[in-house]
Amino acid sequence: MLSDPIVALATPPGRSAVAVIRLSGRGAFDVAGRCLRPFHPDRPRAALRARLVHPGTDEHVDDVVAAPFPAPRSYTGEDVVEISTHGGLLVPGEAVAALVAAGARPAQPGEFTRRALLHGKLDLLQAEATADLIDAGAPAQRRRALRQLDRGLSSRLEALRGELLELEALIAYDIDFPEEDEGPVSPARVTAAWRAVRERIAALLATAPEGERLREGALLVIAGPPNAGKSSLFNALLGQERAIVTEVPGTTRDAIEASTVIAGFPFRLVDTAGLRDSDDRVEQIGIEVARRYVDAADLILFCEDHAAGSGEQYARRRDAFLANLSAPVVRVTTKQDLATRPPPDGLPVSVVTGVGLDALRARLAETAFGRLLALGDVEPVVTRARHRTALERALGEVEAFSAARERGVDAAATATHLRAAVGALDDLIGVVTPDDVLDRLFASFCVGK
After folding, report:
1. At 104, is the secondary structure helix, strand, or coil?
2. Does domain 214-375 sit in CATH 3.40.50.410?
């Protein structure tokens, strides 16, 4: 475990009132003492004013506020010093350079949080939640990351792990008392315990599709015939004019993608070319791109204007298109400011008057994240493919345990499946984490975290 002193700027570089520098590791107080006049390591967690000087030249770099955090009561579990300097590009950079000259090493991305994990200050799930909180662009992402940082998911997994160990203990009686026909533990009790832990693992695993969608943003593809108001609706949901809007059918030739927040949830909006038969080569390419986006969508917003659908042939083609979609579909009827009566199908909306837009936003959030809305912010959610894979392994081993018992496999052999399920949960929590997993995780962190 590396413990040499490391230093990095913990705030974004650039013009600001204050910048924060973090220094951590064995000997961090010695490094700080060479640069700060005065430095008070004997007054933990007290923020005191000091002069920061270059240790080689004694040149005055800045007037700062420094706070020492002795190990183990610090973010990393090591001796930590947090130094607040004036902001900007020059002063924080020169302050970091002075600390490097005093014996610190520039930190690698995520190295502070990696040390916190290795010192037991947080588990792997909390480390991932730290990165998710920093990257959060929507309120729902922030709430979910805070819940995971508060060990919501970790606590649930530890409870599941405990249930698996209790089930394994029941099986141990069969191993210890093989001469008993029924054993000291009834098969019904074992089955009930197995069913309970299986249902809990399956319930947690069921949150994975929407949980991963929450972290990445739901891919919302706006599709429909030409001149159906798709680009206008795209701009309205985005809150800015990104797509060109004209009355000429076929104006949109290529897909336009942009990120936005709808009802507190993250979405990746895609405006696509109008779907129709066309002899125009460029438009044909755009339509093919639109179809590929439709196939990959998490949710499809199908638009048709208030005057559409009068022809029987159009209705057949529309219904055939909708029937072949694999993703959920929200249908809207656009340009309601020009309509004289309510539409027979689809939510009525108008980007001119704003009619129906709030209802549409609520419908989109409900369709894409309905399970998460039902769970609220209390229940834990699986948000990464790594989580899902580990839970799938655990569930598979639990089901293999039951199948082995039904085939009459001896107790010692069936118990290996429970031990493997516990191992899958241990991998998920990060009880023993390979270096390559940590390398992938912390490579996405900012340097000062």
Report:
1. coil
2. no
